[in-house]
Design a protein that fits this description.
elongated, MutS, DNA mismatch repair protein, Chain A, domain 3, 325 residues
Length: 325
């Protein structure tokens, strides 16, 4: 269909009405890519999906994907060799895995009533053996959990023990010095534990100075007694970062091996969200032709056939054979 014909039919406004009825970013993109078409088989298949979506909605059920994080950014990164996903991006990947599994479960009991949609869901695929490990590797805040590997659990336990040991030693030094109020605490400077000392008393504590307060009246000293344990803590932090990177790379590589099925799952969800948006619009503001008259493959229905009408126009236009991919 020519652009001028689309303007006359206000096809852009129709797309916008559909976008308002989608529930996820992939669905909105799918609606934005809809174009008119004249392929009868494609159109009949699309209308069959929409009819099934309408029947689902008539049963006072909904199908939305509001919990799905947009998979496009991390799927694009998976397509670049050598790129490692960030911990928070695995939460987004997990939402696609969970949504795909939830969707298959939703339609499993309705396969006989919704054969077209059920067949479409076959493309969503499954990811057995991956989701459980993914859950174990990520915490609720997007960070890697201690259960990701035995090495990470051991390193983090050593970090806790070393940190506590340093703080005990520093508190003993503070008590021995009978530190005054305002100087009786342990703090961090340059990722190392230190204690505050008044500048005029600097020589009373043997150690390494890691800076001063804004007024210059207080310096922050790392006593020699804790230098070695602070070094150990720094090394443990580096070991933790290396182990986390190894885990993220391993998990990213596993996701990359499933890039095709993951992409197919995202596309299936996008299509279903688009289909249900059309089903919602049909139930609210549109009378749509349920089948095509037995005509040659032409672009328009003849005078006298059923027409469509939307809430944003007062006149009725003939039904174009739209292709809804």
């Amino acid at each position: 269909m020519s652009r001028s014909a689309q303007v006359v039919l206000e096809f852009d406004k129709l797309r916008e009405l559909l976008r308002l009825r989608t529930t996820c970013a992939p669905g909105r993109r799918h609606v934005g890519e809809l174009e008119p078409g004249t392929n009868r088989a494609v159109l009949e298949s699309a209308f069959a999906l929409i009819r099934e979506g309408r029947e689902w909605l008539r049963a006072e059920r909904e199908l939305g994907f509001g919990a799905l994080a947009d998979p496009a950014p991390w799927l694009e990164k998976l397509g670049a060799p050598g790129v490692v996903l960030e911990p928070a991006e695995f939460l987004d990947a997990g939402s696609l895995l969970e949504t795909s599994a939830w969707l298959r479960q939703q339609f499993r009991e309705e396969a006989a009533k919704l054969p077209v949609a059920g067949g479409t869901l076959c493309d969503a695929g499954g990811f057995p053996g991956f989701a459980g490990r993914d859950q174990a590797m990520r915490a609720a805040d997007g960070e890697i959990s201690d259960d990701a590997s035995s090495a990470l659990r051991r390193i983090r336990a050593s970090i806790v023990q070393t940190r506590e040991s340093i703080q005990r030693t520093l508190k003993q030094i503070l008590r021995a010095r009978q530190a005054e109020a305002g100087e009786d605490y342990v703090t961090l400077r340059n990722d190392r534990f230190v204690i505050p000392v008044r500048a005029e008393h600097r020589r009373s504590v043997q150690g390494v100075v890691h800076g001063a307060s804004g007024t210059g009246q207080t310096v922050f000293v790392e006593p020699f007694e804790t230098v070695e344990t602070n070094n150990q803590l720094v090394q443990l932090a580096e070991d933790e970062a290396a182990e986390i990177f190894r885990i993220l790379k391993e998990l990213t590589d596993r996701l990359r091996e499933m890039h095709g099925p993951l992409q197919a799952a995202a596309e299936t969800i996008a299509e279903l969200d688009s289909v249900f948006a059309r089903a919602r619009l049909r139930g609210i503001s549109m009378r749509a032709c349920r089948s095509f008259p037995p005509l040659p493959n032409c672009g328009w229905t003849p005078r006298g056939t059923r027409c469509w009408k939307t809430s944003f126009e007062k006149s009725i236009a003939p039904l174009c054979r739209f292709r809804w991919p």
